[in-house]
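User: If only I could read backbone structure tokens as easily as an amino acid sequence. Underneath my words sits a plain record pairing an amino acid chain with its backbone structure tokens. This is the protein in question:
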Amino acid sequence: MFELGYSLSSEEQRPNDLIHFAERAEQVGFTFALVSDHFHPWLDKQGNSPFAWSVLGGIAHATRCLRVGTGVTCPSFRYHPGIIAQAAATIGSMIPGRFFLGVGTGENLNQHVFGDKWPPVEVRQKMLNEAVEVIRLL
């Protein structure tokens, strides 16, 4: 089955605009949308970086059938896996059967915001595997 999704680029849009775009995506027939989870825009001129989890709550309220999720979030640096488990469960209970959690190992610009040493990919992959295990258990 072919599905067409919509990317809600949080580094380029304000939070209320992202919610409006999700509503519109649903209206024109997109089956899913994903919200990027960035602490900082890729480029300063993009000028935005709303908290993805708040945006997801707004989208949950504004849509009726659109599946939505993170594209992607990193449950290892800015967030503890337990926080991601709680956030995902909250959105999931707001829109039963319509939320998906996309996770990744992160990248320096958005995960390194607190100044910690940035580990190599092998370490980040191990951290992601452990985080996913914790999220599933919770």
